[in-house]
Amino acid sequence: MSLLFPLYFLGLLGLALPWILHRFSDQTPPELLFPSKQFLESTTPPVSRKRTLRYRALLALRILSLLLLCLLFAQPWIKRDNLASVNEQHHMIVLDQSFSMQAERRWDAAIDQANELLQQLGNNSIELFGFDNQIQILASQNNEIQSGGNTSLQAVLNDLQPSFYAADYGVLMQRLDRLAADHDLPVKLWLISDMQASALPVQINALYAPNIRSVEFLPVGTDDQLNVHLMAEAQSTNGATFSVSVSLMASGGGTSTNSITRTVQIKAADKVLESRTIAIVPGELTVFSVDDLTLPASSRLELSVSLLESDALLADNEQKLVISSGASVGVVLLTSTQQRSRSAPVFMATVLETDSAVEVQSISGTVQQIPDDTSNLFVGRDMSVDIELDVLQYVDQGNSALVYNEAVVGLSEITDTVDSSDTLFAGLAIGSVNEAHPLALGSINWTGTRFFATADLQLQNDDVVLISLSSGQPLLIERSSARGRLLLLNDPLDGLASNLPLQPAFVDLMQSILNYFDASTSVPDQVLVGERLSLPANVQLIDAQGNALIELGDQSQSSSVELEVPGIYTALNARGEKSIRALLDPAEADLRAIEPDALNAWLARYANEVPSSVDNAANEAVDSEERTALNVRELINNRDPDRQALWRWLLPSLLLLVLLESWFANRRLNVRRDGS
Amino acid sequence: MPAPTANRLLKPEILARLGSLELVARTVVDGVTTGLHRSPHFGFSQEFAEYRAYNEGDDLRYVDWNVYARTDRTYIKRFQGETNTSVNVLLDTSASMGFGAPVSKLMQAVYLAASLSYIARKQHDALGLAVFDESVREYQPASARPDSLPRALTLLERIDAARGTNILTALESLRASISRRGLLVVVSDLYANADDLLSALQPLAHSGQDIAVFHILDQAELTPSAKTISAFKDLETKESVIVDPQYLQNRYPEKFAAHCESIEQACRRVGADYTRVLNSEPLDASLQAYMRFRERRGR
Fold it and tell me: Comparing C-alpha atoms, which of A572, A556, A566 is closest to residue A523?
């Protein structure tokens, strides 16, 4: 028998307590009155036989109770029969399906490993999982099934294919831990993976799953496999020529650091535009660019950048590109001679032009003078009266407009009329923000933004208040329109009625409004495979093969989709289309394996001894505590295949002893009461 | 034979329910044969007792001149007196007398003293009462006045057992007060050395006192019992002694019996009458024994 917490045996010092109490009890005989002690002789008090037996039995019960209590705290256990314990495990077989498993021979080796393991485990309780950026259960087998073997599991294995996603061992272990907690049997994890170094989590402790008793790695990768990952971008600044920027990263190939040469070819519509041979040092990023390439005469500006030499991962040797036109979004700042503040157009132009993709036009005149190719209007109006019809008509034509309120009297003009010093100097802060709106106003930092003068607005039934002040007055309102978008800003943007134009929040606000107005900027240019792509409402998404991933009819609200395959996707809406590149995760293309020390440190969390190679003392301490906690949990839950906790027998014995002790003690009290 | 009369009388626990000591005494004494006792000393009564040879110094008035004339010898003529005598009752009220059941030894002693007082007054004897513990607490000199009995009973009703005991000092101090010859009744549990008791009683006996000793005992004193080792607390000194039950069962009764025997021997040596009284027994047996003793001494 062994103990988990032998220090609790210090509690045995408490055995002295009943011993002392019983001694005191024996030394206090009952007192009787007597006429004279003249003929009495004092005697050393020996204990009579009857009394000795009774009290010693009680003492023995009390000492035994304390002993059992200390034993319970010390968590004694005995070793189980190992042959019986092997079968009392639940096996989780996890197969790495990440992109790196597409490297030559890795996937086949993983499938072979899995099949061999399934045969070895026979009719044990097994669950088969696949994982990349998430984990999914593929099949399971209860150990009660005695006939048929695990052919169904092997059939599932044969249909599996690796994905383009990146893996994260930290996420894997934490999710497996939650799944293992649901099992009564101790869980053993079999991890069939290429043990990629880039898949290690930032926090190493995430690798520890307390509900998993043991882990065994079945590595399938080899360090000698070399892979070069290619990333490229193309941009045209003038519409006639373009430049291509290429990044190359080599990984694997053993410990050699000798440079290798690769030929990069740029093609457009099957025509080779450029071909270059580049020397690459493994482990270092190599970047080069090709400028002044002439745009091909094609309606679709797509390029292909590829490596001619083969390597371990073929899927990342070629990238499809869309030439970024560099076309800017046009915005008209409409001013007039009657405009009260000349500061507002200046503030807005300054903010909008910080984004190189925005082209701001300041026009003094009427709405009719706005060019037809510009669909975004920023204009100031007096909102104390109804907005002029020309703006509404402009919006109804499918355009967007931001109208700011010129009716608000600025600070310099109200100094003599406003008495409230609080409002005058402290101002009003932002009260509430509609975070559900696509403007993403909740992500803007409104700290420090103050409003010193406001005006009441007459809201219409369909108006949606997007931002309101702490006084409840609306600041930003969206007014519904038949086709376009109309936002009303209850501020003159002169820097006097509020400090909004002077705050960083103003930049974010204008950018959000512009993104909201221009559909082409509401979706990103590129995402990583496996990342969720957020799309606004009424956008159609089409993959590289022309299949619609999201139909228009599917989506009346904004939604998100996960792009599974790298390539070029197209987002379409009423205003036009935009290309989205789905890229492979560069880290996943790094085929370097986990260092042996790190691997040992990972395994050590599930072993009885921490290896000396683990250099982080703090981690060791944490590991030790967690291992102790694991031991306790496994013992208490009777899930440890090697050890069996004795508390199941000790606890009823203790209860029985306590009952007997109470019975004896009460009986003794009754005797005293009787005086017999 | 004490047995027939004992059944007629009431047990101490029943006597304890009676209202007054006078009633108790009357109840007890009426159950006992009420023969008058003779005077313990010879006096001037008409009943002739004996002749004794004349010694120098004898009163010439008691010389029987007729006998002298016939025999030419000088004899003193002695008569048995039918005269009153004095009865002094000495009652021990030490704390040890508070022990016992169903009534305490003190209560039994009080009943006995009251009964003796009643008898004395019924015979028109002078009645005296002394209450002592470590010393003489109260003393009523012997008196033949009618109120001597009520006074004695009143004193007996208000005594309690509280202090230690020293019967030797009490007898010593009473010796000077009791000058008239008569009957001296000692009622006590007699926790004293027999030799000391003897030396205390001897002067009284020599001064002509007729002494009767009533040794009041409780059965638990004679044969105490305890099932476990117990601390026995002395009622007088308040000190405790831890005693083994084996000792109580074997050696204590022997030692206590030897003590009682030595006390009885001491009494006999001074001519005193010794009577053992248990507080659990009716009083008539003790009184009968006393009366018989008096008759014997009277002849």
Answer: A572
B293/A contact by beta carbon, under 8 A = no
Same domain, B144 and B164: yes
pLDDT in tens, B179-190: 777 888 999 999
Hey, is the C-beta of B208 within 8 angstroms of any chain A C-beta?
Answer: no
Q: What is the pLDDT of residues A196-226, one digit of tens each?
A: 888 998 888 888 888 888 888 898 877 778 8
The topology (CATH level 3) of A82-221+593-636 is Rossmann fold (3.40.50)
Domains of chain A, residue spans = 2-32+44-80+645-674, 82-221+593-636, 226-322, 329-520, 525-583
Q: Does B282 touch chain A (CB under 8 A)?
A: no
Mark whether B137 and B74 lie in a shared domain.
no
Amino acid at B132: F
Residue B130's nearest CA partner among B168, B178, B83 is B178
Q: For A121-143, what is the mean pLDDT?
A: 84
* Residue of A25, A26, A28, A33 to mutate, testing the B interface (most B Cβ within 10 Å of its Cβ): A33
Interchain CB contacts (distance < 8 Å): A and B:
81
A40/B contact by beta carbon, under 8 A: yes
Give A500-520 as a DSSP string: GGGSHHHHHHHHHHHHHH-GG
In sequence order, the 6+-apart residues with CB closer than 8 A to the CB of A130 are A94, A95, A97, A136, A138, A160
Q: Which of B191, B233, B243 sits opposite A38 (nearest CB)?
A: B191
User: Among A40, A45, A46, whose Cβ lies nearest the Cβ of B252?
Assistant: A40
Q: Closest Cα to residue A639, out of A175, A90, A16? A: A90
Pick from B93, B102, B96: nearest CA to B233: B96
Which segment of A394-408, B183-197, B250-264 scores lowest on mean pLDDT? A394-408
Q: What is the DSSP letter of A101?
A: G
Q: Residue B42 above 70 pLDDT?
A: no
Relative to beta strand A474-479, strand A226-235 is: unpaired
